[in-house]
Design goal:
Blueprint lengths: L1 H26 L14 H10 L9 E6 L4 E2 H14 L3 E6 L4 E5 L3 E3 L2 E2 H7 L6 E4 L8 H12 L3 E4 L3 H7 L7 E2 L6 H7 L4 E2 L5 E4 L2 E4 L5 H13 L1 H11 L17 H12 L5 E6 L6 H11 L5 E7 L5 E2 L5 E2 L3 E2 L17 H15 L2 H11 L9
Parallel strand pairs: 1-3, 1-7, 2-4, 3-6, 7-8, 8-12, 9-10, 13-14, 14-17
Antiparallel strand pairs: 4-5, 5-16, 11-12, 15-16
Helix pairs in contact: 2-8, 3-8, 3-11, 8-9, 10-13, 11-12, 12-13
């Protein structure tokens, strides 16, 4: 009798949870609503450029901070690669401690210095500090270092959910800011003094810059390049990346939790037996921005995970000097599980081609699911 009662109780709890979950899912909108994207007033653009002018040096120093046990892939590598392409600043990829930096959802790299090394070399501080999203928003070492750099008058630039880290450091209270759509409610709840600004890919307020999703670091870095090196330099870098434009325009209403997004996440998570490990062969001189975008996108499908490999355990140096650590050592990878070759294609085109490849391998809804996570305003994605 007790076992029968227990069984019915368990079934009742499961039924209740399914009912609650089903009610929640069907309460979500079926799609996002499109909105007209208004041009940015010229005076706002001019003010943004002026606010990002180098605060200390003619050739500024840019420090990109990461924590060793979990820093977002594209947030860390894209600013580095774009700024190094432009050659308008000294750019250094840092870690809070010695050892490799494990990026998520894919890749592992060697930082070029620790924050202690940086402080010894640049006691007066950086001109700019770029803060990616991190697994932990409350890493005490990272927070203290970011505060110390702000006190030395560095301009702090958060990428995506890196805004949560900057807010945890106490630097966003009372300031205008934005962040990735998925973390907006969390940011507002934990830091109610932050003044959220919608419909902007980047916002600058009194020495702090914030951006929306992961791919917003492209327009943010090009805006920074313009502030440092001028419009012509920014335009030539944009052409090199494969971008036609990069201003702060954004439709925030196009990015929110929808029923298809939730169902795709749940369905792909539950189908744990249907996962693939896709290989990316590391080669010397490969572009770190293209690599990051491809590995990041494939690892967000909830159907696949991108893994780097080489025939030896020796790290491979990227186009702009980052040492990429192979996650697996092998000379052979099944051909049908190889990520399409990245080669020297322009990074913006690599992302579009990767999303098309995800559509071909899985479904269009999964490519849309990935683009929504990246907060990437695809021209061919329903808005």
């Amino acid at each position: 009798m007790n076992w029968r009662l227990l069984s019915w109780s368990v079934l009742g709890v499961i039924a209740l949870l399914l009912a609650i979950g089903g009610t929640w899912i069907f309460s979500l909108p079926a799609a996002t609503a499109a909105a007209a994207i208004r041009p940015i007033p010229q005076e706002e653009t001019d003010a943004t450029i002026a606010a990002l002018k180098p605060p200390k040096r003619m050739r500024p120093v840019v420090a990109i901070i990461g924590i060793n046990d979990g820093t977002e892939t594209t947030d860390y590598l894209m600013p580095y690669g774009i700024l190094r392409r432009a050659d308008v600043a000294e750019v250094i990829a840092l870690a809070t401690a010695a050892g490799p930096v494990t990026l998520y959802p894919a890749l592992k790299v060697e930082a070029q210095a620790t924050i202690a090394d940086f402080d010894a070399r640049y006691p007066e501080g950086a001109d700019y500090v770029i803060v990616p999203a991190m697994y932990r928003d409350d890493d005490p070492t990272a927070l203290q270092w970011i505060r110390s750099q702000a006190a030395k008058k560095a301009i702090i630039i958060s990428v995506c959910a890196g805004a949560k880290v900057v807010a945890a450091a106490g630097l966003l209270d009372g300031k205008r800011a934005t962040t990735h759509w998925y973390y907006l409610d969390e940011l507002r709840k934990e830091h109610p003094a932050v003044r959220y600004i919608a419909d902007r890919r980047l916002v600058v307020d009194r020495g702090i810059a914030t951006t929306t999703g992961i791919t917003a670091s492209m327009p943010m870095m090009l805006t920074l390049i313009e502030a440092i090196g001028g419009r012509n330099k920014a335009e030539s870098t944009a052409r090199d990346l494969g971008l036609a434009g990069w201003d702060a325009r954004h439709d925030s209403s196009a990015f929110r939790l929808t029923r298809p997004f939730a169902l795709t996440a749940i369905g792909n998570t539950l189908a744990f037996w249907n996962r693939e490990k896709l290989g990316i062969e590391l080669t010397p001189g490969m572009d770190e921005v293209s690599l990051a975008l491809a590995a990041d996108a494939w690892s967000r499908t909830y159907r696949s995970r991108a893994v780097t490999f080489t025939a030896t355990s020796e790290p491979q140096q990227s186009r702009n000097g980052i040492r990429l650590v192979p996650e697996e050592v092998t000379a052979h990878w099944p051909r049908d599980l190889l990520v399409p070759t990245i080669d020297d294609r322009q990074p913006a085109k690599v992302l579009d081609e990767t999303l098309r490849a995800i559509t071909d391998r899985y479904q269009a809804r999964i490519a849309e699911f990935v683009a929504m996570q990246l907060e990437y305003p695809r021209r061919d994605m329903p808005q």
